[in-house]
Amino acid sequence: MTNSTLAFTHQYIPARAEGAPTLLLLHGTGGNEHDLLGLGQALHPHAALLSPRGQVLENGMPRFFRRLAEGVFDLDDLRQRTNDLATFVAEASATYGFDPARVIAAGFSNGANIAASLLLLRPGVLAGAALFHAMVPIVPEPLPALNNLPVFMSAGQRDPLITPAGTEQLANLLRAAGANVTLYWQPGGHSLTQAEVYAAADWLQNQVGE
Questions:
Q1: How far apart are CA 170 and CA 83, in angstroms?
Q2: Which residues is 36 bridged to in the sheet?
Q3: C-alpha distances in Å from residue 121, one per residue of 18, 21, 108, 115, 136
Q4: What is the pLDDT of residues 43-86, one digit of tens each?
Q5: According to the model, what pLDDT value does residue 182 have?
Q6: Is 34 left (phi over 0), alpha (psi -120 to 50) or beta?
Q7: What is the pTM of this model?
Q8: What is the rounded CA–CA span in Å between residue 30 and residue 161?
């Protein structure tokens, strides 16, 4: 059931096993709080799922932050929305009783970009992240100390929206901040493939177990 009692309209599904992590599911442009629930269950069948709906509308399509043009972000809005999302995660933890130190983001496209922004601007909110088809959202100065934080990234070699160079730029930025980045390439475009999901699920199992 969709819940709107916190700042973000969202879905929350409790963990199916004690000690399982919470997956923060962040949809792409035009998605909603329902879109990635299946992805979350595929990534970790026992995890709690917290799936908010982006609060920005672009031509009626929900997003997590504003952009000025394709690939050109409103950085002031991005900073504010990133902080708002961090606050929501903390409030959701208090409301639902999940461990705030065991939250792992899984985002696609716009959702992956704000997850990367959380890593860069609000280190400590996430214990890890799976970023599907992300690009550099912002370059903070100074860089945070991510202290070997595990990050999975996947991208399409023929993605018309995010070039391979753009993907590598984000991977290198996160590595420069100290993250332990695993980069997975698929041969297609800007769509999430089953192979990416399987690779991310294997990565997550190695990080947190069953």
A1: 20
A2: none
A3: 30, 22, 19, 10, 12
A4: 999 999 999 999 999 999 999 999 988 878 999 999 999 999 99
A5: 98
A6: alpha
A7: 0.96
A8: 15
In the structure encoding, which two tokens stand for residue 85, read together?
């999302």
109, 117, 133, 154: which is the annotated catalytic residue?
Answer: 109
Cα torsion 181, 73, 62, 190: sign? negative
Beta bridge partners, 106, equal: 25, 130
Tokens of 89: 């995660």
The number of beta carbons lying within 10 Å of the beta carbon of residue 166 is 16
Mean pLDDT, to the nearest integer, of 165-180?
97
Q: What is the pLDDT of residue 210?
A: 59
Q: Is 190 annotated in the active site?
A: yes
Encoded amino acid at 177, one letter: A
In order, the DSSP letters of 46-108 are TSEEEEEPPSEEETTEEESS-EEETTEE-HHHHHHHHHHHHHHHHHHHHHH---GGGEEEEEE
Write out pLDDT tens, residues 114-133.
Answer: 999 999 999 999 999 999 99
Token digits of residue 93: 């933890």
3-class SS of residue 13: strand
